[in-house]
Amino acid sequence: MISVNDFKTGLTVEVDGDIFTVLDFQHVKPGKGAAFVRSKLKNLRNGNTVEKTFRAGETIGRAMIENRDVQYLYASGQDHVFMDNETYDQFSLSEDQLKWELNFLKENMNVKIVSYQGEILGINLPNSVELRVVETEPGIKGNTATGATKNAKVETGLNVQVPLFINEDDILLIDTREGKYISRA
Predict the structure, then answer these.
(1) Which residues pair with 111 in a beta bridge?
(2) Which positions fall inside the Elongation factor P C-terminal domain (predicted)?
(3) Are 13 and 2 in contact (CB under 8 A)?
(4) Are 90 and 81 in contact (CB under 8 A)?
(5) pLDDT in tens, 102-134
(6) Phi and psi at residue 169, to the nearest 5°
(7) Nearest to 170 by CA among 131, 139, 141
(8) Residue environment code for 69-87, b if the CB has 16+ CB neighbours within 10 A, otherwise e
(9) Sheet harboring 36-43: ordered strands across?
(10) Tell me: the pLDDT tens digits for 73-83?
């Protein structure tokens, strides 16, 4: 058990039978009445974000999440096959479980699988990945003063806003949390 006063960003907790990770929290001490903790939690089973308020000092269950290194192998219809790097066991996850992550997954890529008591909740991507530009319009010199961007499609199908100097076949560093261009690799 853990007190809500000890909340930290990234902490995993069990509330009402579901597993959540703490995205944001705020301790509130109103002038009148009892103190409370306002929190923003992400459900690890379905990806929904909820806001919950807890009384100060309230205790909730701590969820012990297991992370293992796995390798993404290939897509097979609606399923995506992964292999455990230690045991070489293969398992698959559906497209519904990997909606956002599919924008960044390439074959033979190493990621971490997130599980709770044997139930696979999803995968954790690295903070950034290198992806090749497959389609973009050519940049025209002199048509802007500063900071202009254009649309580029990368090898996974994700569309990213990039600076005008980016060309097809360039390798880009993409932030997996927001899906934004960081730099050329």
Answers:
(1) 70
(2) 129-184
(3) yes
(4) yes
(5) 999 999 999 999 888 888 888 889 999 999 999
(6) 70, 0
(7) 131
(8) ebbbeeeeeeebebeeeee
(9) 2-3, 59-62, 12-15, 18-28, 36-43, 49-55
(10) 999 888 999 99
